[in-house]
Amino acid sequence: MINVNRQGEVWVFGEQHGGQLEDTPIELMSKARRLADTLGVKLASILLGDSVKELATKLIHYGADKVYLVEHPLLGTYQANSYAKVIYDLIHKYEPQIVLYGATITGRGLAPRIASAAKAGLTADCTDLQIGDHTTAGDKQLHKNLMFQIRPAFGGNIIATIINYDRWPQMATVREGVMPMPEPDAARTGEIIEEKAEVSQQDLPLEILAEHKRAKKVNLKAARIVVAGGAGVGSKDNFKLIWDLANCLGGAPAASRAAVDLGFIDHDHQVGQTGTTIRPSLYIAVGISGAIQHQAGMSQSQKIVAINNDPDAPIFQLAHYKIVGDLNEVVPKIIKAIKEKTL
Q: Are 298 and 319 spatial neighbours (Cβ–Cβ below 8 Å)?
């Protein structure tokens, strides 16, 4: 078990693949910077790979005060065992109080291994992180400046706040897209600390012959306008209305999980708790009831327009503009008005 160091740093795992930083650690920098400032400690990032030193400077520009850089040919390709061993050794040496990972495929495989080795707690798929105080129920002891790890639970029906006051570091994975992307500051300077990796071929149980990474068909997080369809659209053929409206507006087509499960569109377009979290300027929900799991992925949109024939649909509680009606009549009229520039 790692010692409880209440003056320890806040760390972010700088996930990279092929010499390119993923978006998630950059998004995490905005929240981690506020956590570190609240605690009055340094913000650091852990960067592993082979010939990736230039990425350390990029992490500093996004808010890191320090970057712990570990370069080794055996770290050139991600494997959970070797990365977990190296990161655990760093945690044992420097004793950070908080370590954050993106809830990506990599982060979800890596963080539990490190938590197990460190005998520390881990909260998965957080949507928010805050600093606060907690008094334990039994001995009424006050624990100051703990990380409140906030995430949906019980299928998204409640929001749970999880704390860890006696097993450190406090660790969490954070969902993609829930934190705003910070702006880089090229004038920021920081410290790059180069560490040696105690890793050998025995730490690599797999031999990776080649990697093939398929790019997503749509970048929902970057879209300013998103038009999403739900099960209420009715069929894959009818989903063409969603595509047509999105194309008219120069936006991206998206869907609820129900529409994806019904085969109306593929998973790359899914918005919600098990899909992508977005914050566009305009979100149009068509035939989406608005279950809390879907709201988790789009509630921070600047403007929300909902089209549904059920006046009591939960989505209307979020919507800035509500249209009660048959989407098969409403959407074609909107498309026609846009094309004729009467809207």
A: no
Q: Which H, E and C letters describe 83-110, residue by residue? A: HHHHHHHHHHHHCCCEEEEECCHHHHHH
Residues in contact with 144: Cβ distance below 8 Å, sequence separation at least 6, in sequence order: 133
Q: Where are the domains of the chain?
A: 10-203, 220-339
Give me the residues paired with residue 162 across strands. Answer: 149
For residue 78, give Cα distances in angstroms to 40, 157, 206, 211. Answer: 33, 35, 11, 10
C-alpha separations of 39 from 76, 79, 131, 214 in Å = 34, 33, 8, 40
Give residues with Cβ within 8 angstroms of 207, minimum separation 6.
none
pLDDT tens profile 118-162: 999 999 999 899 999 999 887 888 999 999 999 887 766 678 999
- In whole angstroms, what separates CA 170 from the centre of its chain? 18
Homologous superfamily assigned to 10-203: HUPs (3.40.50.620)
**Helix, strand or coil, per DSSP, at residue 81:** helix
> Exposed, middle or buried by CB within 10 Å (0-12, 13-18, 19+), for 167?
middle
- Predicted local distance difference test score (pLDDT) of residue 140: 87
Name the one residue in this structure whose structure tokens are 């570091």.
169
Planar angle of CA 91, 95, 101, nearest 5 degrees: 50
Torsional sign, CA 89, 94, 97, 101: negative
The pLDDT score that the predictor gives to residue 264 is: 96
Ranges of residues in the chain whose predicted pLDDT is under 50: none
The whole model's pTM is what?
0.81
The pLDDT, as a whole number, for residue 330 is 96
Q: Which residues of 180-197 are buried (b: 16+ CB within 10 A; e: fewer)?
A: eebeeeeeeebeeeebeb
- Cβ atoms of residues 151 and 159 within 8 Å: yes
Q: What is the second-level CATH architecture of the domain 220-339?
A: 3-Layer(aba) Sandwich (3.40)
118 residue type, one letter: A
